[in-house]
Structures are given as C-alpha cells and as structure tokens.
Amino acid sequence: MPRLHVVIASTRPARNGPAVAGWFTRLAEKHGGFDVHVVDLAEVGLPLLDEPHHPAERNYTRQHTKDWSASVDAADAFVFVAPEYNYGMNAALKNAIDYLYFEWQYKPVGFVSYGNTSAGLRAAQMTKQVVTTLKMMPVMESVAIHYVGTHIADDGTFEGTEQMAEAAGVMLDELARFADALRPMRDGSA
After folding, report:
1. Is the pTM above the cut of 0.70?
2. DSSP at 158
3. CB 143 within 8 A of CB 40
4. Class of the CATH-defined domain 3-187
5. What ranges do the domains of the chain cover?
6. What is the pLDDT of residues 29-42, one digit of tens each?
7. What's the CA angle centered on 115, arms 113 and 119, to 5 degrees?
8. CA-CA-CA-CA torsion sign (55, 57, 63, 69)
C-alpha cells in the first residue's frame, strides 16, 4: 500500500491547518488506498535552510535535515494542507520543499488549500510551479476551502461539506493512480 504524507504546512500559532488536516486524514484513512501519516511542519521544526551544501548533493550535515530527508524519502505521495499568505505559498512550506531535491522526485502531490475568498488557490498554483521543478506530479483534482474559519466548530474541529469530501475522494483516487504509475520511476526500474 502506498504511503501518503499529509503535510500541515502552516506553523503559525492558532492556525487552522491541524483542524483541516484532521478532517482530511479521516477521509484518507476511510478511502483505504493509502498508509496515511500526518507530518506537521511545526513539529518538524526546520530552521530557514541552513545546510552548507546544495540539496542535490545529498550531503546533509544537520540532524533535522537527515530526519526530514528520511521522512520525505519514505513517502509515495503527498497532500499539502496549506494556507494562502499574501497571494502566495507560506514560507514554512517553501523552506521545507527547498531543503531536499531527490527525495521529492516522481511522487504525486495533491492540495487541500484554504483561505478566505481565494480558498488558497493562488498558493496552490504557486506551489505547483515549485514542485514540478523537483519532478513531482501535481494532480489536477484538489480541495479548495473558502472562508475556512466558518467551518471550524466551537470545539476546534473542521466541518467539511459534502462537496469537499467528494473532492477529497476524487483527489485521493488520482493520487493512488499516480503513485502506482510513478512507482517504477521512484524505484529505478523504469
């Protein structure tokens, strides 16, 4: 079964990412096509890129980079649960992506984006430009959440709509297809 990492991209205090990721993770586990793991960039705690060597050299000197490399390497697919900050992707996600190179290659990525009027779509589009440079395959299907705060219950849980859940299911189906199709490229047999 392919391993899916659900990456919580926001590291801000009082962020909505963990609530949205919790909702999505439950759907992904119910989907049954993946071994699902949540990766919270706030817990990963990567400082602003501090490796002395280029990521393509894979000559990591810091333990946090070695740990991050092992985590990303273990995944077959990703879903970035990400906000939009000022019309773009948030710095913590960009930094986490930039730490590595080969570990991302030939892996599909989906997006659960959130914000207010834009639903994080501009950030998702910006992130797609970045990940394709790393030979990742963004799937077309996504979940876009408008006015994310209106979906957060008093107990802090995210309450997605039926349409959001349907979009998540379609995205998970595509991620599973691409994870399988790209496997020969990841394992070097293609």
Report:
1. yes
2. B
3. no
4. alpha beta
5. 3-187
6. 999 999 999 999 99
7. 60
8. positive
